[in-house]
Design goal:
mainly beta, 189 residues, ten-stranded antiparallel β-barrel, Lipocalin, disordered N terminus, 2 domains
Length: 189
């Protein structure tokens, strides 16, 4: 029979290769620990929780929309991306649809709307909020090359409804014509 000798952990000797691997592993764990500490001390990412980001929240909801008392369509307006985006989903009674992205830009201090319809109509507007109304301005070119200015305003009414007034001008803002005057009432159900 062969006798086996057991050594206690304190008497085991390791070769140079083991010590080198242990040193590298220790350094790696140290770097990972430092990276985790650095991540936890980095400033948090900006959020959209300043009061300016809430200025259009009155428009968020599921709406029936009328114009001059007649049904014009339905609009589902949602708050998305952690409160940074107001997303409009329009369905007109005549079959037209469209969506808009509305957002406050902390860099320029303005609101922006990008609208795209199912007919390929695009609006790129910017504006400001004052006295309970968000007003966007922008322009595009018609097929004949003339410029058409747009002024779009959203107003929170005291009774919980919303008025959206869209006006256009073909004379550089000297006169304005109403393109849409919508009255939003929250859908029941």
């Amino acid at each position: 029979m062969t006798a086996h000798r057991f050594r206690s952990a304190s008497t085991i000797r390791f070769g140079t290769g083991f010590r080198a691997r242990a040193l590298i592993a220790g350094m790696a764990f140290g770097l990972v620990g430092h990276a985790l500490t650095a991540q936890s001390t980095a400033p948090p990412a900006p959020k959209c929780d300043a009061p300016e980001y809430r200025q259009l929240d009155f428009w968020v909801g599921d709406w029936d929309v009328t114009m001059h008392g007649q049904p014009a369509g339905a609009n589902l307006v949602t708050l998305e991306e952690g409160g940074c985006l107001v997303h409009e989903h329009w369905t007109g009674n005549g079959g037209g649809t469209g969506q808009s992205f509305n957002f406050f830009d902390r860099d320029d201090g303005a609101w922006h709307q990008v609208w795209v319809s199912n007919t390929g109509s695009i609006l790129d507007l910017s504006g400001h909020y004052a006295d309970g109304t968000l007003t966007y301005l922008g322009e595009n070119r018609r097929r004949d090359g003339t410029r058409l200015r747009h002024r779009l305003s959203f107003h929170a009414n005291g009774d919980g409804t919303v008025r959206q007034l869209w006006e256009t001008s073909s004379d550089n803002g000297a006169t304005w014509a109403v393109a849409f005057d919508g009255h939003y009432t929250k859908r029941k159900g």
